[in-house]
Write a structure and sequence with these properties.
Layout (H helix, E strand, L loop, with lengths): L2 H8 L1 H16 L6 H13 L4 H18 L7 H13 L12 E6 L6 H14 L4 E6 L6 H11 L3 E3 L7 H15 L3 E6 L7 H17 L5 E8 L4 H14 L3 E5 L9 H9 L3 E5 L7 E3 L2 H9 L6 H11 L4 H9 L1
Parallel strand pairs: 1-4, 1-5, 2-3, 2-4, 5-6, 6-7
Antiparallel strand pairs: 7-8
Helix pairs in contact: 1-12, 2-3, 3-4, 4-5, 4-11, 5-12, 6-7, 8-9, 10-11
Length: 331
Amino acid sequence: MGLFSKIKEGLKKTRDSVVGQIDSMLKSFTKIDEELFEELEELLVMGDVGVTTATAITAELRKRVKKEGITDPQEVHRLLEEITADMLRGGDELSLNTSPSIILVIGVNGVGKTTTIGKLANYLSNNGKKVLLAAADTFRAAAIDQLEIWADRSRCEIIKQNEGSDPAAVVFDAISAAKARNADVIICDTAGRLHNKKHLMDELAKIGRVINRELPDADKETLLVLDATTGQNAVNQAREFKNAAGISGIVLTKLDGTAKGGVVLAIREELDLPVKFIGVGEQMDDLQPFVPEDFAKALFNRDLTNDSDIDNAIDEQMGLNTEDSEAEEEQ
């Protein structure tokens, strides 16, 4: 299955729920009027897009309908796809131009943080990066062991200390090892933390000081992992972490298991935080780079007949060799 097909399949529950209702609603209208806009806004809110974002989308839709002189309600699908893509563009790519660069991964327990790190390491390794993992979640039982398993799966080295060690010391060791081994990217696991636990936020600040001292000129990403199945709670969680931790982007997991995929729009519009990766399945390669145009097309376009052509174009653009990937899976 190609990248676009994975995204399309991963958004199936959201598309069937949200866009299915929008389909039915549009078919009941013979013209575009204020009642249509009001019903559409209500459906978007019910799809976990959020009130603020739903209002912004319908306001932009009104403008485009008037500007283009559109009267056919069925044209609303195309406009929604365009508006969504425009809303989500910007900042969605990782900035990892220095060697080493560093990615700090944060988030509460249970959102799939360790799994995300393993899949992200695998993605970067497959794209030619030498990746080093730092097991800085030293408080949760078995966290280090779990990360070791993912290090093996993704063919990456791991730097660790004993359970209960100072997380900042683990990050320091990882940076030293990355310099000595010419690693391209360091991915740091951190303890699952809530915004209201001050000592944990202080620990995160300490890690940040070590990074800034040891790698002052390195590209740095701070990624917050969120569980899409929590809907608007994920937006609230992102808001609190943004205020406390200086997030550069979001990784949204478990999109394939929820009809609440509209939360992607709320995170971007309300918090001005780019979504960098999305999780659309359980397999190693089911963590996908977030591409706004593909997300919008997979969400709002229900008539996708050329998926294979889109897949081939995306795979070629990203330099992925599907035959090599299949061979690795068989081994």
